[in-house]
Design a protein that fits this description.
Elements: H1 8-19, H2 43-57, H3 72-90
Helix pairs in contact: 1-2
Length: about 90
């Protein structure tokens, strides 16, 4: 497990590795508050992304949290919350 927070750059990397990118998706723009649906990522892509985050960071995300209105900001906050909780239990 890493001591660093999960960032937007981490999310972009995981998204591209797990689900790829549509040519019309500009992940370098202001995407923090856009829903993943608007960004071109459907529920299966989010599940793949969540699975990769879980494997890479050693946390478990609730599938129910991956709702249609999920934004990158919300997912980053969710991952960082789980990372902080995991660090607290191992400290």
């Amino acid at each position: 497990m890493t001591d660093k927070p999960f960032t937007l750059d981490d999310l972009k990397r995981v998204l591209l590795q797990a689900a790829g990118a549509d040519e019309s998706t500009d992940l370098d723009g202001d995407i923090l508050d856009a829903t993943f649906e608007v960004l071109g990522y459907e529920s299966l892509a989010l599940l793949e992304t969540a699975g990769q985050i879980e494997r890479e960071y050693g946390i478990s995300l609730d599938d129910d949290a991956l709702a249609d209105d999920l934004t990158p900001r919300t997912l980053i906050d969710l991952v960082n919350g789980h990372l902080a909780a995991a660090r607290a239990t191992t400290a």
